[in-house]
Amino acid sequence: MTLNIQPDERSFDLEAARQIYAQIASKHDSVIGLSTGRTTGNLHRAFARMAREGSLDLSRVTFFGQDEIVGVPQTYSGACYEMLRSELIGDLDIPEERFLMPPTRWEGAEKALRDFTEMLQARGGIDLILLGLGENGHLGFNQPGSPFGGTARIATIGPELDARVRRELALGPEAPLGGATLGLRDVMHARRILLVAKGSHKAAIVKEILQGPVTEAVPGSVLQLHPACEYLLDAEAAALL
């Protein structure tokens, strides 16, 4: 377990960007996992700037997103595909064949998710995955109670996200929504993990996943068992440690 505490948000974003850069510089065909949300948007943009300014060779890198909303258009602004494309992938001109994502459509979703995980394995597995942390300890769509041995699947999404997506897309209650996600077992097979958390609203759960028991009730606690997991925090998120 490695703690990396940065004094402010700017330093936090630059440090995360630097770590992605260093991974690719050391292994040009790296497979890099990304997460979406308020924590990661600016660090993705910081990495894109850093990669352009440093003329980093991205020609053999594969980027992927660890989860996706199922039941929405891929072009929906809240889809993980679209967020990653706008924050990083598009800026760096990464072709679609090296930007792997779980499905957004229900039709053929289970097969598409199997194909997604098989493509990751065919490229040598995950070298580095950045994980955001939910306030209840969730990782991706692995909510409390998700089995540590679980693999990629389509899970239920949380009620707040469900309500927001329905409101933004004017979907009725009959329209099915789900969350395609890597399972916790898949995540733990990554060679390196960078757990990123910032803000005072994450302080309590950061303390719990780092200093509490390892339990499926708090999915993020499983990272205590990973041999190469680094926790990148800003000062506010680390305040209770």
Short description:
This protein has 241 residues and is α/β, with parallel strands linked by helices. It has helices at residues 9-26, 41-53, 80-89, 109-122, 159-169, 184-188, 203-211; strands at 2-6, 31-34, 62-65, 67-70, 99-100, 128-131, 153-155, 178-181, 192-197, 229-234. The chain is 33% helix and 17% strand.
Read across the widest sheet, the strand sequence of neighbours is 1-10-9-6-2-3-5
Unreliable spans are none
- Number of helical segments with 4 or more residues: 7
Strand content: 15-25%
Order of helices and strands: EHEHEEHEHEEHEHEHE
Please compute the radius of gyration using only Cα atoms: 17 Å
What's the β-strand tally? 10
Q: What integer is the average pLDDT?
A: 97
CATH topology: Rossmann fold
**General shape:** globular
* CATH first level: Alpha Beta
